[in-house]
Amino acid sequence: MFQIPNRVQGIQRNYIVYLGSHSHDGKSSLPDDSYSVQAITESHHNLLGSFLGSEKAREAIGYSYTWNINGFTAKLDEAEAAEIAKHPDVVSVFLDRGRKLHTTRSWDYLSLEKNGAGHPGPLWKAAKFGEGTIIATLDTGVWPESKSFDDEGYGPVPSKWKGICQNNTKAGVPCNRKLIGARFFSKGYTQAGGNPTNQSFLSARDSEGHGTHTLSTAGGNFVPQAKILGAVKGTAKGGAPRARVAAYKVCWPPVNESECFDSDILAAFDAAIHDGVDVISVSLGGSADEYFQDAVAIGSFHAVKKGILVSCSAGNSGPLPGTVSNLAPWITTVAASTLDRKFVASVQLDNGLILKGESLSGPLPQNKTYPLLSAAQARAAHATVKDALLCKPKTLDPKKAKGKILACLRGDIGRVEKGKIAAMAGASGMILCNDKINGDGDLTADPHFLPATQIGYRDGVALFRYISSTKHPKAYITPSTSMVNVKPAPVMADFSSKGPNTIAPYVLKPDITAPGVNIIAAYTEAKPTDPSEDPRKFPYNILSGTSMSCPHVSGVFGLLRAVYPHWSPSAIRSAIMTTARTRDNARNPILDSTLEKATPFSYGSGHIRPNRAMDPGLVYDLSVSDYLDFLCARGYNKTLLKLFSDAPHECPKHARIMDLNYPSIAVPKLKGGSSITMTRKVKNVGKSPARYAVRIKEPKGVSVSVKPNVLKFNKLGEEKKFKVILKAKWNGTADDYVFGGITWTDGIHYVRSPIAVYVVTA
Question: Where does the record place the catalytic residues (predicted)?
Fold first, then answer.
C-alpha cells in the first residue's frame, strides 16, 4: 500500500521501502552469517536497481535492514516511489519522517530514592537490582565516562549479547561490563540535510545530554554523593541499577525542526533486537500516524515478537486532549507526573506574603529584600510590553533592570534562557511566573544563571497585583532547599500529552504515568560548540518531560523481566497497569496541573507502583496473533499484515477492536439507550486456588455489568474469560468522556482496569 503526504513532483526525498520480516527469523549475525546478510543487501539493491538501474540504485540506497526488519531506504522522487510501491514484494513505501525528543528542553533531571513511584526495595531484592537484564535506549547516545556506567563489581558480559561498541575508542565510546553496547545511526539524518559532526560526535557519544540522562534513569549504577550545583546531594541510581545498558544513538542536533528520523530509528530497532536486549526505551515521538507508516510502531512490533519490552514517551503536547503519541497497543505509552520531592525557593514580599516556588539556583548575594519590577517595567525602548514581560532577548533595559528582581512570564523561550537574559541586563534575581495554561501544579527546579525561582499561576497573579499596587515593591528569594514527602504528589505535569487515542480510540492511551518532573540523572560533560548554549556542564543534571518518565518504566520493566523471564511483554505491561494507583499521597484523586481532578486520559491506569507490580494476581495477556487480529479488525489486508507478521495470517471472520485483551477499556461511541459488550480474559499468576470477585465503579450515566462477576481459578496459569456490558442510562450527547472502572479482587490483590466512554445521541 502506498500513501505519500505532501505530494511534491520531481523532488527527491528519503523513503523507507518496507518488505516485512526476514525468513531467517533474525538469527543471522555477523560475521558468522555474513553471506546471508550480504545476500539480503544485494537483493535490496537488485529490487531498487530494477527501477533505477544498478549504478543509480547504489547511489540512492541508504540503509539495508538485514536482521529482523526487511527493507531499505532510498533517495527517490515521488514517481519512483509510487512505481516501487507496486512491486509484489513491497508492503509499504513511506517518507522518512522526522521526530523530536520528548523533553521540555529548558533544563526543563534521577534517583528512585525519593520519587513518588515508591522505593522499589522488595522488587529490587527479588530482581537482584535487575542483574542479568539488558536495557537499551534509542536516543542521543551516552557519555561513557559517567560514574552511572561504572562497571566495578560486574562479571562477564552475558553470553547472549551479540552487540558491539561502534568506534570503541577513547574519543568514541569505550564500553565496559556495565555499558556493553553503543551504536549510532545517521543516514536518515544526513539525507535530510543534517551534518552529524556539527555540534555532535560521529559516534554514540552524547553531546546533548538527553541520552545519558534517560539511559542512567533506566539502568544507571549506584553513585553515592552525586550532586548538582551543591543544592542536591545523594545516591543517584537508575530503576534497574545492576542491569547492563546499551545506547543506540538516533537523535542529532535539529534539522528542519526534527532530531530523529524514522530510517535511523528502524535501523536501531533492527540492531537492538539482533544484539539481544531485553528492554527498549524510546523517549521520542511525533504526530500520530497509522501503524503501517509509523517506524516506532513497526520497529516495536518486531521487538515485541521477540519478547522484548518497549516503552515510549507519551509526548509533551499537553494539556490539550488528543495529543498523546506512540499509540500502538503493543507499546507501553508513558505519561509524566511529579515527585513527592521539591527544591523549594520561596518569594518573600515586603507585605508579608510568601509565595512558594522551586529552583536550583544559588542564593542572593545579600540576605535582604531587593527592589522588585515587572519585566515589562524594565523593557527597552524598542521592545513591546509582551516581549519584555516574557524576558526575550534584547527586550530589557540594563539601566532599569540593574540590581532589581524581575518578574518574568513563562512562555515562548526557555526558562533558563530568560534568567540568562535577566542576568545579562544586570538583574539581581528573577521570579518566573506560570501562565494560566501552565497552572499551579507544574513547577520546575532549574539551575538558573542568577538567583531565581518559579511560581504557579495564582501566586503569579498575586505577585503582579502586589507590584502594581505598591509604590516601592520589594522581595527576597530564599535559598533553594530540598523537601521530601511533599503533598499532594503525584500531580500530572501540564506538558504531558493526553488522550483520547486519535488512531485507535478503543485503545486507551496513555497506559501509565511515572515521575517526569525535576528528574536528576547523569548528563553529558561535552562542551557546547554553539555559543548561545549554556556553557555550564554538570555530571548530574535536572530535566523534565515524558522523556524522563519513560525510562522509569523501562527500569521497572528490567526488574520485572529479571523476576519473570518467561512472561510475555503484555503480561508485564498488564502487571504495572493493573496495580497502578489513581490517588495521591494525601489519598485524594490525582490532580492535573490546574489542581483539578485528572482522568485516565492524563494518567492511563494510574501512577506506577513497582512493588505491587511484582505480585499483580491476574494479568491480561496478549500474543502476537492477538495483535494481528486487532489489525484485521482495523481493516488491514494481507499485504499490510506482512508489515508485522512473519507468516501469512488468517483474519478471523468476526474480529472486533473492542475485544483486544487490553488492561483498560475505552468506548468512543456508545449510543444513548443502547449497550455494548466486550470480552476480556485474565490469567492467574498469583496463588491457587483463587477466587476473585468484581467491584464496579460506573461512569456517570452509564451502567456497567460484568458476567460472570466471580472468577474461580484452580491452578496457576489458568485463564478465565468474562464480558463487560456498558449501557447508556439515557439518550443524549455527553459533553465529554466519562470515566469509571472495574476491579477484580481476592482480598489481597486488586486488579484494576479504567473505563472511558463517550455517550452520543442515538
Answer: 139, 210, 547
